[in-house]
Amino acid sequence: MNVPTYGDEYKRILEHFNTLRVTAHDIPNLSVKISAGGFWYYSSDGMVYVEYTGGNSPGISRPVRDAYWAVVTISIEGNIELFYGETASSSPPLPSIPNGYIPLAAIYMQYNTTVITDNIIFDLRPVFGADIVDHNALNNRDADDCHPISAITGLIEALDSSTSGTSGSSGSSGSSGTSGTSGTSGTSGSSGTSGSSGTSGSSGTSGSSGTSGTDGTSGTSGTSGTSGADGLPGTSGTSGSSGRSGTSGSSGTSGTSGSGTSGTSGTSGAYIGVTYYLHEEDPPSPVGYDTLLRDPIEDDESIFTVSVDASAGEQLIRAFITNPNDPLLTLFEAGIWIFSTWASVSDPESGSSTIVVRVYKYDIHDNET
């Protein structure tokens, strides 16, 4: 652990809630900064202290329409993660936060948000604790009577209603002798869900007194208990942004044995277009690019030049990239792409020149395809 601990300067002046605080940048953009701090977390191995050195969030996307909440969280590994709620025209819902993450702040993102300022950042930090979130992290789970049958709903009634196993048949009488004793009766089947009891042993052999018959075999195992109730359904994932022209939803499946009605067809996706403008400024990441933004440029015109030679092949004039998670798509539907480009050739007599525009996908692993 760091000495002094991260955020100690706030605690020494009794400003505990300045640790892990989410605020806008001094020059606002589409990310936020988080102050240094730490918290205790209860793991299966006991109490663990998680530290955060302070830093910036990933780039925060805005919706293509209406508004949604973007929640900034810190994981139990000390990493900053974002979770997005569903889009709505008014009062959008907060997203569900999975186990292992602590919410720090909610940011109200609208389709026309260009920078994040403090007036749209809302503090969500709980009073940091060390709650147990996993049953396996509890102590003494194997202690006597820690799980009585009364703690399981319906178990007592299920046991009471189960039938006892059938009694074993009596052993046959011993053969003649002075008078052989009768064989012992087979053991009764165990009650409850156990299977039927074993058959009785055979009677003793003849002699002065016949020996007792052997014990009946054990009853077969009882039937298995009923399955536990289904767990609660998982929370829905965040909605993806709308495609250019969504495909029709698939038809619902037919009911069992042909009697169920067919599912309703999905609604067609909306046709939405978007325009990007070339800005001569650095994006949040990666380096080596200028930025593609949805807002028109307000600066003076910029002129980019490059020397080309027929033997050198294609020469890059300028590369532009959108902010992270803009647009929130993994697949572009078929449609029309329009590139408005103003260019000139300084020596048109030297040959034919061609302007080529190429579109690539850049992923989180720095792969450009």
Layout of helices and strands, plus pairs?
Elements: H1 8-11, E1 22-24, E2 32-34, E3 37-43, E4 46-52, E5 55-56, E6 67-75, E7 80-84, E8 101-110, E9 121-123, H2 155-161, E10 277-279, E11 290-293, E12 320-322
Parallel strand pairs: 11-12
Antiparallel strand pairs: 1-2, 2-5, 3-4, 6-7, 6-8, 8-9, 10-11
Helix-strand pattern? HEEEEEEEEEHEEE
Name of the top-level CATH class of the domain at 8-135? Mainly Beta
The CATH architecture assignment of the domain at 8-135 turns out to be Sandwich
**Inertia-based shape:** elongated
Kindly report the CATH topology of the domain at 8-135. Answer: Immunoglobulin-like
**Alpha-carbon Rg, integer:** 37 Å
User: What is the number of beta strands?
Assistant: 12
Low-confidence stretches: 194-210, 227-258
* Percentage of residues assigned to helices: under 10%
Strand order of the largest sheet: 7-6-8-9
Structural class estimated from helices and strands: mainly beta
Mean pLDDT: 74
Biggest sheet features: 4 strands, antiparallel
Q: Please count the helical segments.
A: 2
**Distance, first to last CA:** 41 Å
Strand content: 15-25%
Description:
This protein has 369 residues and is mostly beta strands. Among the domains are: 8-135, Immunoglobulin-like (Sandwich), CATH 2.60.40; 269-369, no CATH class. It contains 2 helices and 12 strands. The protein has helices spanning 8-11, 155-161, and strands at 22-24, 32-34, 37-43, 46-52, 55-56, 67-75, 80-84, 101-110, 121-123, 277-279, 290-293, 320-322. Strands 7-6-8-9 form a 4-stranded antiparallel β-sheet, with no helix packed on it. The two termini are 41 Å apart. The model is unreliable at 194-210 and 227-258 (pLDDT under 50).
